[in-house]
Amino acid sequence: MSNILVTGFTGNTGQEVAKKLKVKNASILCAVRHPENALKKYGEQNYVHLDYSRHETFEPALLGIDRIFLMYPPETLLSDFHAFIHKSQEIGIRHIVYLSVKDAQRLPFIPHFKNERAIARSGIPYTFLRAGYFMQNLNLFMLDEIIKNDRIYVPAGRGKTSFTDVRDIAEIAARSLTESAAHLGKKYALTGSQAIDFYEVARTMTTIIGRPISYSQPSTQEFKTYMLAKGLESKYINVVSGIHFITKIGLAKGITDVYSNITHKQPTGIETYIKDYQASFTPEESIS
Ligand SMILES: NC(=O)c1ccc[n+]([C@@H]2O[C@H](COP(=O)([O-])OP(=O)(O)OC[C@H]3O[C@@H](n4cnc5c(N)ncnc54)[C@H](OP(=O)(O)O)[C@@H]3O)[C@@H](O)[C@H]2O)c1
């Protein structure tokens, strides 16, 4: 049986990819930077140590592996990440399923453009998952403002974005990894079925969680000033501002039917996502 390395196992997408692969009884290795922490948090799994900034971890992590779910942690040096791709090629990896971003092919200045090119040039057979805006951003970097100030706080103006559930992306990743032949060389633009703005998300959230949630539409400068004062790192704030600027100017609203063409199901809608994550949006003191 083939062994699949799941990178970013402790992250948003890696967790969901691992779950989907387990349902398919695939043999997986979970790549983590801190195996002892992962063991405490996620229990017994097949862990392997992988840190892109420590090249000596590459070969042991790739031992016995023939397929990889590969995600790019935004703070990683491209030279380190590309060294890992090079080592994967040397070792004879047969398939990389790479988590990219929608429209990466048109954005030569972003890391995903360069990473896709590095994978293609390595000659390793690949599938690119060019994913739309994650719904799970709401329960991750927007969560603090939702919980503490009952508001969605991002500088996206009235722009619409193609909210995409990470669980749907993980499903396509798992299918690509376990049914490789059908997905080799494919570049999938994966989105939800609807592009909506953050006013609509706030209204839907209000209805479902039963507490008024507003969307404050800060300017990019207001957002940066506020987040800096809150103690977030400026590099991270710039990445978040950049993503929402693309939404604001109307470039994130494209939707595709790739998910339903592959799965013959509709992508997860925003209502289902909010219901499934409802407990995360509720302050702890109000849970009796
Ligand atoms: N957010 C969106 O809307 C969106 C949309 C499309 C595409 N994307 C892309 O999705 C990716 C982010 O995916 P995600 O949200 O699943 O990530 P995430 O939740 O932020 O998790 C990052 C993962 O990377 C691991 N990691 C960090 N530094 C590492 C290193 N030096 N070596 C090895 N592993 C390292 C982390 O492990 P530790 O536990 O050790 O920190 C963690 O497992 C990005 O490439 C982003 O551009 C995002």
Can you describe what's shown?
It is a single chain. This protein is α/β, with parallel strands linked by helices and 288 residues long. It has two domains: 3-131, Rossmann fold, CATH 3.40.50.720; 143-160 and 193-253 and 264-282, UDP-galactose 4-epimerase, domain 1 (Alpha-Beta Complex), CATH 3.90.25.10. It contains twelve helices and nine strands. The chain has helices at 12-23, 35-42, 58-62, 78-91, 111-122, 143-149, 166-178, 198-209, 220-230, 234-248, 258-263, 270-276, and strands at 3-6, 27-32, 47-49, 67-70, 95-101, 126-131, 151-153, 187-190, 214-216. The chain has a seven-stranded parallel beta sheet, with helices on both faces. Strands 7-9 form a two-stranded parallel ribbon. The longest helix has 15 residues, at 234-248. The protein starts with a strand and ends in a 12-residue tail after the last helix. The mean pLDDT is 96. Residues 8-14, 32-34, 50-53, 71-74, 76, 99, 101, 131, 133-134, 137 line the site of NADP nicotinamide-adenine-dinucleotide phosphate. This is NAD(P)H-binding protein.
